[in-house]
Amino acid sequence: MEIRDLKTNDEITWCPGCGDFGILNALKKVFVNLGRPLNQILLVSGIGQAAKLPHYIKCNCFNGLHGRALPVAFAAKAANPGLTVIVTTGDGDCYGEGGNHFLHNIRRNIDITVIVHNNQIYGLTKGQASPTTDPGFVTKVQAEGVVLEAFHPLAVALTLGAGFVARGFSADSEHLAWLIAEGIKFKGFALIDVLQPCVTFNKENTYDWYSKRVYKINDDPNYHPEDKDAALKKAQEWGERIPLGIIYRNQEKKTYEEKRGLLNKPALIEEDITRIDLKATLKDFI
Amino acid sequence: MERCELTIKISGEAGQGMQTIGMALCKLFKDAGFSIFANQDYMSRVRGGNNFFQLRVSHQPQYTLRQNSDILIALDKQSISLQKKNLSPSSVIIFDKQKFAIEEEGKNLFNAPLYDLALKNGESEIFVNSVACGLLTRMGGLDFVQLEKVLRSVFGNKGVEVVDKNIKSAQAGFDYAKNNFTSNKFNLPKATPREKLLLNGNEAIALGAIAAGVKFYSAYPMTPSTSIMDTVAHYAKNFNILVEQAEDEIAAINMAIGASFTGARAMTATSGGGFCLMTEGLSLAGMTETPVVIVDAQRPAPATGFPTRTEQADLGFLLHAGHGEFARVVFTPGSIEEAFYLTIKAFDLAEKYQIPALIMTDQHLADSYREIGPEELKASKVKRYIISKQDSGGITDYKRYKLTSSGISPQAVPSWINGLIYADSDEHTEEGHITEDAQVRVKMVEKRFHKKMLMLEQEIEGPKFFNLRGAKICLVGFGSTFGVLKEAVLTLKDEKVGFVHLPQVWPFPAAALQKLLKGARKIFTVENNAGAQLARLLRRETGIEADKSILKYDGRPFNVDYLVAQLKKR
Question: Most CB within 10 Å of its CB: which of A283, B31, B254, B318?
Answer without folding.
Answer: B254
